[in-house]
Recover the amino acids of this structure.
């Protein structure tokens, strides 16, 4: 096949300690069939299959002690080459994430978290050869350790939630990122009644500046507590606030939804996202529509313009065209122009064409029109 | 139950099952694309669930956020597009234009950023730069970084200094998203992919456009799997190495399928149309922006001067982040990359910038699983954007022009009387030095020198003190001397000393403030020694030696305008008139000194300057691999962030 000469060579060469990448990158080297074939054979031979079956059986039986011994055997099994060994080690390690650890397996995983990869894979999809571990055993082991810590924290928190223990919030605050993750998972999985008892405390702490934003968001969602959700949107660090905002469904929201979104539209970090969330309401809810029009000449007027455009509503388009013609505020006119540009339909294009022809249209604004109309 | 568990495990352990998954030939191409076990395989990214066909990343799976303003994460295509349009509509300095349609008929936009005229502040023809984003759909780092560059250029365009200089002297053409169809496909399925963990494909992991050999575009439904491996790799579709050097495939299911012909794809045709707007004759900077592997992958064209200029330029940009990004030079004949096209066709500096991570999700504590390098964690995105933009802005400044002297004034310190004034003015295609005042400087008297350049020459820290742009090392004060070549012995070479505080960051023009941009001028006092043997007037050469913000030396002869053609600088000379692409000292300002203020000027000023002080060559690509010097590069970077104190609106 002609592909053999010109074909790409990424992702298939598994070979030990390939040439270190230097500051000058060579073109993709010629294919080395033998190495690829050897590697493929190594990971599908009888010994490989035998050990993989053993891994599967031990995982199915949740036999962590047996798995620890099995991992030790895999590390030193002379009948396996490095590619097969590392593939088996990684796959087996990853399966451990859902098992309950005991000391033997913990020791094994800790040791594997420093595993030095011997089998590298070279990929050419970036346009030059780059070397990656074919089976990153160490990263898998670190993931499993982290997952165990998260699971332990989750179980601790779940028990505390069952006792309605309020000290769990203090433990969340003082915990590591990993522990906080586990705590949040526990709250997310608990019943609304169980988590609701934490809402007032979390809202108070959040507004006082305590680092409880992630937990407060989870509790607000798990308990359906709109006041707490609003507190997260207005007071939490931007990333948490935006995550909370993303959970709001304007269409299915309560009457309070617009109030929350309007408040979020006043906060710099959330304003754009909040205004875009209001977009679907603008075609049916006059107060939502007014809010967007009023925001046009504000600091996030571009987002308000985008939100108005998303409605694709004839009434809104005509009102925007009116602003474009009649407003004496250049910023407001630019925003109306932007909204019409972003409204991809004939009605808005008609307005833009008429505007472009208007004898009183200032050249500064006129310059923005043709690219959209493709005149 | 047990049977299901075993089947699941067997899949991840690669046990031979009744149905094998995707198989790959020796060239990485899926060899069983129509086999249902491969064709229909579906995977889902999760934070920590590895069961079944789930792939745990070890961090939250980023989802697109609807927001025009930047977030700690990735924006949706629609809101990015609205952001681009808003910056265009709000600013007369941005001209957006549709340069083509994707296969599915979506518009491809370029935004030309810079003041409306295409002439420099002193009447020359502006340079242009082209930055292309999101040619590969799954490389979400790219649209965010490229949009950040767009946002920053607009944000700083009226800052009175660096940003205004770029706006007035350079046209930056930005294509934020070239592969719109592919990118929207990845955002439609932000946590799903098909194919195999070894080579994840459609959904979040789509790389190519939506072309299919039958002519009907790939459908957007990830569950309709008959066509999910199709598409053309748009970064293998350009001329200059198309189909050559083993860098692409002629198999439509290949990840690097090059398409039926060079430039066959409408998206690549749109990129060419965008470059025509520069126009290409003005282009001297092209960056294709990808992820990942943290490298400037840079074609060498064999044009020695162009290759050296490119290496130096990339070196300066890499230095911004302490060589965190690597330099990879490719000296073959290309493989059809866009950077091959621009480097080899137009002989301009061009590269494929692969954004972080270096290795994969493992760089952020993730699992290194399923090409996780394409999935940057949300909490790394804002930092990544700022880092890439600060590198690219340094490169844009470098390519806009070379630094040179623009004007000089010397006044008597005590009386304020003007003794010497000169400035470079347009003269035909070049310039001439217009000396409007030319009086003797008198031995024993103190003077104030005002010296202006064509561009901002210094950077300031958040506190307003003159400092270095991150990763650069420019002495705060130039090496200034008054030389008397016709005299010999002691006192024939007077150093003029100062510090960073001599640079002018307030307006006022000649004599008191900066000329056009903050820190384009300095003001410093000096005294002509009493014992200088100048009974008869002697010529005094003001020898000016300095580097600019990114460590470029002065154009030693402003008579010829600096320009770019044929893969090299034109008119960028040292003090002896050698066009060397790196400049040198300025020895063109020649005053005269006498013991009597009414002395007759010397017969000749054509005395040159001594070569005692060779200019410090700007470091080229120092450092080998990346990664080192974390603390050293982080500090200036934090300073730049604080300096900007941005308001995102
Ligand atoms: Zn790419």
């Amino acid at each position: 096949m002609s592909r053999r000469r010109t074909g790409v060579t990424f992702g298939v060469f598994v070979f030990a300690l390939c040439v270190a990448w230097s500051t000058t990158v060579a073109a993709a080297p010629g294919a080395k069939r033998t190495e690829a074939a050897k590697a493929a054979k190594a990971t599908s031979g009888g010994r490989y299959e035998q050990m993989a079956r053993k891994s599967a059986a031990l995982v199915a039986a949740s036999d962590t002690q047996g798995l620890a011994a099995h991992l030790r055997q895999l590390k030193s099994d002379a009948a396996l080459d490095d590619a097969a060994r590392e593939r088996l080690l990684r796959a087996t390690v990853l399966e451990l994430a859902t098992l309950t650890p005991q000391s033997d397996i913990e020791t094994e995983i800790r040791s594997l978290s420093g595993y030095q990869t011997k089998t590298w894979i070279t990929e050419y999809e970036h346009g030059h050869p780059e070397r990656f571990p074919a089976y990153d055993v160490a990263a898998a082991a670190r993931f499993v350790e982290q997952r165990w810590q998260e699971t332990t924290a989750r179980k601790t928190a779940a028990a505390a939630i069952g006792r309605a223990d309020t000290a769990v919030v203090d433990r969340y605050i003082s915990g590591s990122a990993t522990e906080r993750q586990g705590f949040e998972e526990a709250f997310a999985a608990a019943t609304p009644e169980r988590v609701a008892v934490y809402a007032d405390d979390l809202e108070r702490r959040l507004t006082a500046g305590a680092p409880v934003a992630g937990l407060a968001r989870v509790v607000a969602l798990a308990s359906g507590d709109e006041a707490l959700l609003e507190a997260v949107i207005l007071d939490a660090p931007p990333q948490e606030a935006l995550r909370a905002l993303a959970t709001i469904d304007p269409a299915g929201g309560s009457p309070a939804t617009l109030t929350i979104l309007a408040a979020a539209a006043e906060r710099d970090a959330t304003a754009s996202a909040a205004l875009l969330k209001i977009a679907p309401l603008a075609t049916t809810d006059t107060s939502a529509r007014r809010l967007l029009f009023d925001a046009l000449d504000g600091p996030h007027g571009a987002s308000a313009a985008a939100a108005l455009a998303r409605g694709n509503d004839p009434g809104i388009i005509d009102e925007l065209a009116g602003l474009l013609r009649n407003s004496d505020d250049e910023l407001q006119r630019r925003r109306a122009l932007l909204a019409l540009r972003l409204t991809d339909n004939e009605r808005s294009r008609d307005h833009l064409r008429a505007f472009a022809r208007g004898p009183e249209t200032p050249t500064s604004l006129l310059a923005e029109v043709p690219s959209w109309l493709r005149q | 139950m047990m049977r299901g568990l075993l089947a699941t495990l067997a899949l991840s352990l690669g046990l031979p099952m009744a149905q094998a998954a995707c198989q790959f030939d020796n060239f990485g191409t899926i060899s069983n694309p129509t086999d249902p076990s491969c064709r229909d395989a579906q995977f889902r990214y999760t934070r920590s669930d590895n069961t079944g066909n789930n792939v745990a990343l070890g961090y939250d799976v980023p989802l697109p956020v609807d927001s025009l303003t930047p977030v700690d994460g990735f924006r949706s295509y629609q809101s990015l597009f609205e952001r681009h349009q808003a910056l265009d509509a709000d600013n007369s300095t941005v001209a957006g234009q549709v340069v083509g349609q994707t296969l599915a008929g979506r518009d491809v936009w370029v935004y030309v950023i810079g003041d409306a005229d295409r002439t420099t502040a002193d009447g020359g023809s502006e340079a242009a730069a082209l930055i292309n984003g999101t040619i590969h759909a799954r490389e979400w780092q790219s649209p965010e970084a490229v949009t950040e560059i767009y946002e920053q250029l607009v944000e700083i365009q009226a800052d009175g200094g660096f940003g205004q200089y770029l706006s007035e002297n350079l046209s930056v053409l930005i294509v934020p998203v070239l592969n719109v169809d592919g990118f929207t496909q990845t955002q439609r399925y932000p946590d799903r992919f098909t194919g195999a963990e070894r080579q994840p494909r459609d959904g979040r992991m789509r790389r190519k456009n939506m072309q299919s050999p039958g002519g009907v575009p790939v459908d957007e439904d990830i569950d309709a799997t008959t066509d999910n491996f199709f598409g053309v790799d748009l970064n293998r579709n350009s001329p200059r190495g198309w189909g050559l050097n083993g860098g692409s495939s002629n198999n439509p299911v290949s990840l690097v399928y090059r398409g039926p012909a060079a430039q066959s794809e409408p998206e690549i045709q749109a990129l060419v149309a965008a470059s025509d707007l520069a126009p290409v004759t003005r282009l001297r900077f092209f960056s294709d922006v990808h992820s990942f592997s943290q490298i400037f992958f840079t074609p060498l064209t064999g044009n020695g001067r162009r290759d050296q200029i490119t290496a130096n330029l990339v070196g300066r940009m890499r230095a911004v982040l302490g060589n965190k990004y690597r330099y990879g030079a490719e000296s073959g004949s290309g493989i059809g990359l866009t950077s091959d096209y621009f480097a080899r066709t137009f002989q301009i500096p061009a590269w494929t910038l692969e954004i972080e991570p270096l290795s994969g999700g493992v760089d952020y504590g993730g699992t290194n699983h399923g090409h996780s390098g394409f999935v940057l964690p949300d909490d790394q995105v804002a930092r990544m954007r700022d880092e890439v933009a600060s590198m690219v802005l340094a490169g844009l400044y470098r390519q806009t022009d070379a630094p040179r002297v623009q004007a000089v004034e010397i006044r008597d310190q005590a009386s304020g009387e003007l003794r010497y004034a000169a400035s470079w003015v347009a003269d035909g295609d070049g310039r001439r030095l217009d000396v409007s005042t030319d009086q003797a400087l008198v031995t024993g008297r103190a003077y104030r020198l005002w010296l202006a350049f064509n561009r901002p020459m210094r950077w300031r820290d958040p506190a307003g003190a003159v400092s270095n742009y991150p990763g650069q090392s420019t002495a705060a004060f130039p090496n200034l001397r008054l030389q008397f070549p016709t005299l010999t012995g002691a006192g024939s070479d007077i150093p003029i000393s100062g510090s960073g505080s001599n640079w002018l960051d307030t307006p006022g023009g000649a004599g008191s403030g900066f000329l056009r941009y903050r820190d384009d001028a300095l003001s410093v006092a000096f005294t002509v020694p009493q014992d200088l043997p100048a009974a008869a007037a002697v010529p005094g050469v003001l020898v000016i030696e300095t580097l600019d913000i990114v460590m470029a030396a002065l154009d030693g002869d402003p008579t010829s305008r600096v320009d770019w053609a044929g893969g090299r600088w034109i008119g960028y000379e040292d003090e002896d008139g050698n066009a060397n692409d790196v400049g040198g000292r300025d020895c063109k300002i020649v005053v005269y000194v006498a013991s009597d203020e009414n002395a007759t000027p010397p017969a000749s000023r054509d005395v040159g300057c001594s070569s005692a002080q060779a200019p410090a060559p700007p470091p080229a690509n120092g450092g080998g691999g990346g990664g080192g010097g974390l603390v050293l590069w982080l500090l200036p970077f934090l300073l730049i962030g604080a300096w900007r104190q941005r308001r995102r609106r």
Notes: Residues 54 and 257 of chain B are 28 Å apart (CA to CA). The first helix of chain B runs from residue 2 to 13. DSSP finds eleven helices and 26 strands in chain B. The first strand of chain B starts at residue 42 and ends at 46.
